[in-house]
Amino acid sequence: MSTTNMDLKGLNCPLPVLRANKKMKELMAGDILEIEVTDPAAPKDFETYSGTTGHTLVSSVEADGVFTITLEKSA
Predict the structure, then answer these.
(1) Average pLDDT per run of 10 along the chain, which is 75 residues long?
(2) Bridge-based pairing state of the strands 66-72 and 56-63
(3) Domain count, the chain
(4) Distance between CA atoms of 8 and 2, rounded to whole angstroms?
(5) In sequence order, what are the beta bridge partners of 68?
(6) Are 29 and 57 spatial neighbours (Cβ–Cβ below 8 Å)?
(7) What is the CATH number of the domain that holds 38?
(8) Rounded Cα gap, residues 12 and 8, in angstroms
(9) Domain containing 51: what range?
(10) Active centre residues (catalytic)
């Protein structure tokens, strides 16, 4: 299992989800993708994304206007 980090700060919907989805396709099942975003809609967008793709939304944390979204790739 590996962890990949993406800095998507400054991008607005739907770009963070689209770029994260592209990266998820490169990962192996069980790998972690940690994304940093500033779009306030991102937590809800990634919640919807995980529900439709089957990937696990591990956490969504906000600090100083930056949201850190952690996803685990499903099998």
Answers:
(1) 96 96 97 98 97 97 98 95
(2) antiparallel
(3) 1
(4) 19
(5) 36, 61
(6) no
(7) 3.30.110.40
(8) 9
(9) 3-72
(10) 13
Beta bridge partners of 57: 71
SS3 string, the chain, reads CCEEEEECCCCCCCHHHHHHHHHHCCCCCCCEEEEEECCCCHHHHHHHHHHHHCCEEEEEEEECCEEEEEEECCC
How many whole angstroms separate alpha carbon 57 and alpha carbon 64?
21
The amino acid at 38? T
Task: Please give the pLDDT value at position 75.
Answer: 87
Q: Could you tell me the pTM of the whole model?
A: 0.95
- Determine contact, residues 14/45, Cβ cutoff 8 Å: yes
Residue recorded with tokens 């906000």: 62
The tokens describing 69, both together, are: 């979204």
Token output for 21? 């989805």
